[in-house]
Write a structure and sequence with these properties.
The chain has about 950 residues and is mostly helical. It is built from 51 helices and five strands.
Length: about 950
């Protein structure tokens, strides 16, 4: 025993700590920590095979972070850990919460960070709908991390990420998206191509823009010599070469080999080199089993129990599982620690994952499965969490035990409550294998199908079909299919969503003599079906025909059928029928707020109303509903609904000229939808691009609309048209007229494929007219603009008509062109869309000047310039200024300046910053990202021509 203790002490003080030849990796770690301390977070991904020294590097990183004054949070995953939803995230973030006093704990969980409470407080419930909960928890964990980093820079160290649960990896991805704005360094390690590892999530982390990948190399012959001679002085060259060949320079295997040779009393001579050469890496690890056999009675049994229990291995539990009394188990644990197999103290764990794997694999498969089942019973009696019990049941052999099925269903329910659908799928799949009693099988299949649906798996449809075959109640089947369809729609899979809704409707048809479903149940499915079908190109024509039949009985639809009326309003809008009718119908559906009281913010109908009012130029009414929906979403912690609200608010604000707020709202929607729920991601990107272009940031606009696999993900919806329009606007801004023409024409095909004729939705013909005109195709430009004018006149709303008239006036030129531009200005004066008015004023002034009426041109140009300056529309402002100079005027560069030039949102953020709030505190209070706050402050500093918060406080008085 003394020899083993001496060996362990020697390892701790010698090159065997695994940091030989790791200078480049340590330099990268130091650089990452330094960047984080400066406020620019980075992620280091250390990848390598088992034993290469990843853990030693992460330990060194933690030590260096602490020495640099950073708060260090560390976690190590295990094979069982990946069964626990958010297991690693909780392991990282629970200690600082547990160690905080009540006041500080509340500060850490203040604001949006409170969404993470359900992970740390048993009494707290996850907010929002099931599909929302994952995003609520991710958002809360992000803000908890941000709050922790507010005190001092933070280092997060996560070892063995290949065993990390999917929910925690999604948290790391969510954090990575926002890491550049935080004083946080994340350092994680993983093995390449580890079986059962969540490779897709790991690949996303490894390839992220904030990530640097480190791949520690095997030790060189010189390093092997250094290590070997430090452990076995006088080692001869042939002996060292044999050690290098056997271990291939793997630091852990080399240490184990040297320990085994020392235990056997082998001298490090050239002659012994032949004996070393006959060993292989497997036999090096098996030497640990030989050491285990030599230990006192009970040590082997305890080691095997610890291997099975893994993270749950307290001395008491391991002793009970091994069948040892407490004193014998304690002596065995001390012996295992002295032999350098277990770490000293509790919980009991092996010194290296390879040792754990070796001893675990040495337990016979049948015995191992039986031990996992006993461990599950033991943990359940001790009151362990459901997921801890379930993790062991996953490893036990199926035996038809109803208790096992019930435990796995309970664990799945808890996982879904935390948004961890992947964990729920594992538990429910295992429950089916048990198998469940006949009367329970349908419910298990249903729960599994719902979990797979939430996880976006194609197998969900087949699984729900299997459940439906065992469920007789058509109402229940229809409700399941409606739920499935809505989830698929939010993920962007419109074709499958429409199919699910159609199947639900068929379930409620039944024979005429049967009362299969109530009119309300049928109406709810019709609303969902038609709302989705109107957006999907393959179903749009049938959907419009179906809505047309509803119009015949429109007057008979009552308050309980508001949803059907909202679909009628969408139908009228898309077809371009009179906007007054669309507004009237939308207000009837809204019912002065009764719709919101009845259905809440997460309702198809609410968002139909908002869209119809906004596109019809009823911006005040639309924004009132959006604000109510955003407030409800904040209370409920619904990230998906927040994304919808920010997105729906971005277009009215853009049209009003509140460009910086429009950009930040669209950016918040993009952040909310960058995960699985990406239905409206293309249109959020489109509105951000529009605002960014007018603010002069072409690169940011281009980045927003550069979405990978867009054709595959959204090609069968009219969402793709918006993305193509945004990309066309980038091409136009960069002078690539041919590309812009192609993109706008493709946009038109996409939009018309869904039978959206109304230019109020996307004025793609005006865009196309501008691109054709820039390319010299005057006739083509006129044709596109004239078609849009005709359609816009039919709809009648001022904004789309004013835009179309402007495009036609610019393309037409001459006196007729002037007349169209003057009509555009008159029309837009009736609209709340002040940005479009400013554009038409500048185009009118420019046209008048080109006709030689320089003095007359100055009035519209001055008005357009003043509006553009107030909006911060730098591109339009620059053009108006140039035209005024060309007209002979001498305009000041900024006629509206100072605090008066700030938009309401800029003013609000500026005042909070002047009061001493940090960007993070402002972002939490407003429920936006830090980038959005930075965007507002950057615009504010530019408008006020200042550079600091001290200047800001002075300017605001």
């Amino acid at each position: 025993m003394r020899a083993a203790q001496a060996t362990a002490a020697h390892r701790a003080s010698s090159p065997s700590n695994g940091l030989l030849e790791r200078e480049p990796e340590l330099a990268a770690i130091d650089a990452s920590l330094a960047a984080a301390r400066e406020g620019e977070g980075r992620l280091l991904y250390v990848e390598g095979h088992a034993g290469i020294g990843k853990s030693a590097l992460l330990a060194a990183a933690a030590e260096r972070g602490a020495e640099a004054g950073m708060e260090v949070l560390a976690a190590r995953a295990s094979a069982l850990e990946r069964r626990h939803s958010f297991g690693v995230a909780v392991q990282l973030l629970e200690p600082p919460l547990a160690g905080a006093d009540d006041e500080h704990r509340e500060d850490l969980l203040a604001g949006a960070a409170g969404l993470a409470r359900p992970l740390f407080e048993d009494h707290a419930a996850a907010a929002g709908s099931p599909e929302d909960q994952l995003f609520s928890l991710l958002h809360g964990l992000y803000w908890l991390t941000s709050n922790l980093a507010e005190r001092r820079p933070l280092e997060i160290v996560a070892d063995d990420a290949h065993w990390t649960d999917g929910s925690s990896l999604r948290f790391f991805l969510y954090l990575a998206q926002r890491l550049a704005e935080l004083p946080v360094a994340v350092i994680m390690s993983a093995r390449p191509a580890e079986p059962e590892a969540p490779q897709d999530l790991l690949r996303q982390l490894k390839s992220h823009a904030v990530t640097d990948v480190l791949r520690p190399a095997a030790l060189s012959p010189r390093a092997v010599e250094t290590l070997a001679t430090s452990r076995m002085p006088g080692a001869e060259a042939e002996f060292v070469s044999a050690c290098a060949r056997v271990t291939d320079g793997n630091p852990y295997l080399l240490n184990e080999l040297l320990s085994d040779l020392q235990d056997r009393g082998v001298e490090p001579t050239a002659a012994a080199g032949a004996q070393v050469g006959r060993l292989a890496p497997d036999s090096v690890l098996e030497a640990a089993l030989v050491r285990l056999v030599r230990l006192p009675a009970g040590a082997a049994a305890l080691a095997r129990a610890v291997a099975v229990l893994s993270d749950d291995a307290t001395l008491q539990r391991a002793a009970a599982l091994a069948g040892l009394d407490r004193e014998v188990a304690a002596a065995a644990a001390d012996a295992l620690a002295a032999a350098d197999l277990l770490r000293p103290g509790e919980p009991l764990c092996f010194v290296h994952p390879l040792l754990h794997s070796t001893i675990y694999a040495d337990v016979a498969a049948a015995e191992r499965a039986a031990m996992h089942r006993r461990a599950a019973r033991q943990l359940e009696r001790a009151g362990a969490p459901d997921e801890t019990v379930a993790a062991h049941l996953l490893m036990a052999t199926a035996s038809g035990d109803p208790w096992v099925v019930e435990q796995l269903r309970e664990a799945a329910s808890g996982s879904l409550a935390r948004g961890a659908a992947d964990s729920a799928i594992r538990y429910l799949t295992r429950a089916l294998e048990e198998p469940p009693p006949a009367g329970v099988r349908g419910d298990v299949l249903l729960e599994l199908g719902r979990a797979e649906s939430l996880a976006g798996r194609a197998s969900a449809v087949a699984r729900l079909d299997q459940a439906l075959a065992l469920i007789d109640d058509p109402r229940r089947r229809a409700e399941i299919l409606r739920e499935l369809g809505w989830t698929l729609q939010k993920k962007g899979d419109m074709k499958q969503a429409v199919s699910a809704f159609e199947r639900g409707l068929r379930e409620l048809e039944g024979p005429p003599e049967d009362d299969v479903g109530t009119s309300l149940e049928v109406a709810n499915l019709q609303i969902a079906h038609l709302g989705a079908a109107l957006l999907e190109s393959g179903s749009a024509e049938r959907a419009h025909r179906a809505v047309a039949s509803l119009i015949e009985k429109e007057s008979a639809l009552g308050a309980d059928e508001r949803g059907l009326l909202s679909v009628v309003a969408m139908h009228r809008l898309f077809r371009g029928e009179a906007h007054e009718e669309v507004i009237s119908l939308s207000k009837q559906v809204w019912g002065g707020g009764r719709l919101f009281e009845q259905e809440g913010s997460n309702s198809h109908t609410v968002w139909h109303v908002i869209g119809c009012l906004s596109w019809s130029d009823a911006l005040d009414e639309a924004e009132e509903i959006v604000d109510a929906a955003l407030e409800a979403a904040r209370r409920e912690g619904s990230i998906v609904t927040l994304g919808l609200g920010f997105y729906a608010r971005s277009w009215p604000r853009y049209w009003r000229g509140d460009l910086s707020t429009a950009a930040s709202d669209a950016r918040a929607a993009i952040d909310a939808w960058s995960g699985a729920f990406s239905m409206y991601l293309p249109v959020a990107a489109y509105w951000f691009a529009q605002a960014a272009l007018e603010l002069g940031d072409v690169d940011a606009a281009a980045e927003a609309v550069d979405l990978p696999d867009a054709e595959e993900r959204w090609g069968d919806t009219n969402m793709h048209g918006a993305l193509l329009a945004g990309q066309g606007c980038i091409g136009l801004a960069r002078g690539d007229h041919a590309q812009a023409i192609d993109l706008f024409e493709r946009c038109g095909s996409s939009v018309l494929g869904s039978l959206v004729a109304n230019p109020a939705v996307i004025p793609w013909r005006s865009f196309l007219s501008s691109a054709r005109l820039a390319a010299g195709d005057v006739e083509g430009a006129r044709a596109a603009a004239c078609e849009e004018v005709e359609l816009a006149r039919g709809f009648g709303a001022a904004r789309p008509l004013g835009i179309a008239l402007r495009a036609a006036g610019v393309a037409e030129r001459g006196e007729r062109g002037l007349g169209l531009l003057e009509e555009s200005v008159r029309t837009l004066r009736r609209s709340p869309s002040r940005l479009e008015l400013a554009r038409s004023l500048v185009d009118l002034g420019a046209a008048v000047r080109r006709h030689g009426r320089r003095a007359k041109a100055r009035e519209p140009l001055r008005e357009g310039l003043e509006l553009a300056q107030g909006f911060g529309a730098v591109v339009l402002e620059r053009r108006a200024h140039e035209e005024l100079v060309a007209s002979g005027a001498k305009p000041r560069r900024r006629e509206l300046s100072g605090v008066d030039s700030l938009t309401p949102s800029e003013r609000r953020v500026a005042e909070m910053a002047a009061e001493g709030m940090t960007n993070r505190e402002i972002a939490q209070q407003l429920f936006v990202t830090v980038k959005a706050v930075q965007w507002h402050l950057g615009n504010t500093y530019r408008k006020l021509e200042i550079s600091s918060r001290e200047d800001l406080a002075r300017e605001l008085g």
